[in-house]
Amino acid sequence: MPVRVVSDTACDLPSRTTEELGIALVPLHVRFGATELVDRVELSTADFWQRAATCDELPSTAAPSPGAFADAFRSAAESGADGVVCVTLSSRVSATYEAAAQGAREAALDVPVVVVDSLSVTMGEGMVALAAAEAAARGSGVDGVVAAAESTKRRVAVYGAIDTLENLRKGGRIGNARAVLGTLLSIKPVIEIRDGVVEEESRQRTRARALRYLADKVRAAGPLQRLALLNGNAPDFDAFVELLSDVTPATPLVTADIGPVVAAHAGPGAVGVAWERGQV
6-39 pLDDT, tens per residue? Predict the structure, then answer.
């Protein structure tokens, strides 16, 4: 491919997809107390949940270093790429975008490197990276690959049903007052990624209502190009998948695990949806 696509491990794209399309992933880091592990290298999703269940402290995350991105960009150039497009986790929840931008400057390559802020997380980010990689596979140049990413970025939505706002509060991703109120009322929050930020979208009285609400959001979104259902170690995930068994996006439905980076903030039991609307 004339253009290589790079992303980060918060995109939650399955390994088979990244391998098929040649998407290079730069790993974030996950901390359990004093122990820091490299996502997807030293820490699988199963390992993450096992550690989370036995660790007294909530896990935290850290962006990759600029050097890690610089290495990925150099590797792409050395493999013969005419350019590199990097799709990152939202700059409004992580320093990953800035690390990638700095890494592009550090790499100082003779080929162009463009960093795209997905303004999304998990498979929302993944869908932007996927669109970029598909454009690259069709032979598009850097401008065409960036255009495909930017177009998809405008049509992607991410929602999630979580058991508590506590992880998001402690991670600084949502305000203290809303988290405390939600806990007091024993409500089940539904969150969304809005303009790159985690926002509380609604409050549902029971878990079952929260999952039905998510399913209704998917149906109301209209014709979908892509749809991903996301599992954060939720015991009722299969039941949620069944709720949407009648929805048929243009491309095959994807079910994926919420990876350690996003799971550290969403907490156990999270169920998510990410979709890309079709082009009008």
Answer: 999 999 999 999 999 999 999 999 999 999 999 9
Query: pTM of the entire structure?
Result: 0.93
Set out the domains of the chain in order of their start, with CATH numbers.
3-28+63-153 (3.40.50.10170), 156-277 (3.30.1180.10)
For residue 186, the model assigns a pLDDT of 63
Residue carrying the six token digits 């990413």? 149
Q: How confident is the model at residue 242 (pLDDT cuts 50, 70, 90)?
A: very high
